[in-house]
Design brief:
Layout lengths: L1 H9 L1 H21 L8 H10 L4 H9 L15 H16 L1 H7 L3 H31 L17 H28 L4 H12 L1 H9 L4 H24 L1 E8 L2 E3 L2 E3 L3 E7 L6 H19 L6 H11 L4 H22 L2 H10 L2 E2 L7 H36 L9 H25 L7
Antiparallel strand pairs: 1-4, 1-5, 2-3
Helix pairs in contact: 2-8, 2-9, 5-6, 5-7, 6-7, 7-8, 8-9, 9-17, 11-16, 11-17, 12-13, 12-14, 14-16, 15-16, 16-17
């Protein structure tokens, strides 16, 4: 692996792309440390050291690289763009125009990307206004006596909303620049950087706990086992053989080849875990708005649903992951479309008739694989939490299976892209 990285830096074009990517990531981390105008940064640091933050905000803070609880210019992170991208994918099922654009090729994808940008700006405005309202009402740091926003005039609030929204647009632009001129998927690498930046804090919290050395060793071993399992499963796929019949096109004979349809065990990726985590954050946010005198219903939600260590929370987490795995897979992979395309070009699965029987067979295989993939996602997402419960660690520490899935998935994708570019540049043909 080390020789591969050295080879990448020895290649001039690839070295420029890697340095460009690292430079963009450095700019992103710099923006995380710049506070939004109107925020008293000293009071934010004081409140962060005195109070315990809600678990929901800790998770959001994780995906923003620590920028949310600092209320920096990049406080929203890349989450508005992710939410907009998921919404556009879901709208393809509801709006025929979006589905038609998706099938138009590069031009249609460009229009969908433009719609995603517009929706991202809308989400950024709403989320920035919500976070500023929460900060003004002491929901980020309950019980802190000093004000985070000393001047709450309309001009200051409007400037803060504009700054945070602009920060999200800048993050989106930086991610697109990495995708175009750097190495890897820009948005994924920004999320990777945000999560990786939280690891020193997580390691320090585990080390400072009771039996810190023992807990650190156990957590480290479990993390390595989970990483190995994630790499193995993410690389696994079910290959359905496809045979193309020979046919004459003019004077040429086409077809007669064999290939396969690769179906990954985890077709939905990290999306089911994100959806499930987002829904389970709602009880925590609701309990925050309830104030110091909550009702019996709010207390029950806080103790049984919002608490990550509660059995009901774990059960709901598993059920939501399984549901969203099936839901998202059904949206992204349509067996009827695949079967129609195969029939159009003379392809068939050996032993299966073309047309509807092929679609039924693909749906059957996909359903069984999704069952295994959803249970795998639930296991990976819960193993760190269960480990923290067994070791007696604070379950509010923002570290879980979702973080490992994102880190490993983005790391594998980036390494594959670097490897493919190395192979292109070092390929030797018959003539030297």
């Amino acid at each position: 692996m080390l020789s591969g990285f050295l080879s990448a830096f020895r290649t001039p074009d690839l070295r420029k792309k890697l340095l460009f990517t690292l430079g963009i990531l450095a700019i992103y981390r710099l923006g995380v440390a710049i506070p939004t105008p109107g925020i008293d940064y000293a009071n934010v640091q004081l409140c962060a050291g005195q109070t315990t933050t809600n678990t929901a905000f800790e998770v959001l803070n994780l995906f923003s690289g620590g920028a949310l609880l600092q209320l920096s210019i990049f406080a929203l992170g890349i989450m508005p763009y992710i939410t907009a991208s998921i919404m556009v994918q879901l709208l393809r099922v509801l709006i025929p125009r979006f589905e038609a654009l998706n099938k138009e090729g590069q031009e249609g994808q460009a229009k969908l990307t433009q719609y995603t940008r517009y929706i991202t700006v809308g989400f950024a405005v709403l989320q920035s206004a919500s976070y500023i309202t929460m900060a003004r009402n002491d929901l980020f740091f309950p019980g802190c006596a000093v004000p985070i926003i000393p001047d709450d005039s309309w001009y200051t609030i409007a400037m803060m909303i504009l700054t945070m929204t602009t920060g999200t647009v800048l993050i989106m632009w930086l991610g697109e620049r990495i995708t175009e001129r750097g190495v890897g998927n820009g948005m994924s690498l920004l999320i990777f950087t945000s999560i990786a930046a939280s690891f020193p804090g997580v390691g320090s919290a585990i080390w400072n706990s009771s039996n810190g050395l023992q807990n650190s060793i156990i957590v480290g071993i479990i993390v390595l086992i989970v990483i190995a399992a994630v790499v193995f499963v993410e690389q696994s796929q079910r290959r359905i053989p496809v045979q193309y019949a020979k046919r004459m096109v003019g004077r040429r004979m086409l077809g007669g080849s064999s290939t396969y349809i690769p179906i990954k065990i985890n077709m939905a990726g990290i999306i089911p875990v994100i959806f499930a985590s987002s829904l389970l954050m709602l009880p925590s946010v609701i309990s925050q708005f309830a104030g110091n005198d909550p009702s019996d219903t709010i207390i029950w939600l806080r103790d049984n649903v919002a608490d990550p260590a509660a059995p009901l929370n774990i059960a709901l987490y598993i059920l939501l992951i399984v549901f969203f795995a099936y839901f998202y897979t059904a949206i992204t992979f349509n067996p009827n479309d695949v079967a129609d395309n195969m029939k159009k070009y003379g392809g068939f699965i050996p032993g299966i008739r073309p047309g509807q029987p092929t679609a039924d067979f693909l749906a059957y295989v996909l359903s069984r694989i999704t069952a295994a993939g959803s249970l795998y996602l639930a296991a990976v997402a819960l193993i760190p939490t269960i480990t923290f419960i067994v070791l007696g660690l604070d379950t509010s520490i923002p570290f879980g299976g979702a973080s490992i899935l994102i880190l490993v998935g983005v790391g594998l994708d980036t390494v594959k892209r670097i490897q493919s570019q190395l192979e292109q540049r070092h390929y030797e043909g018959f003539l030297k």
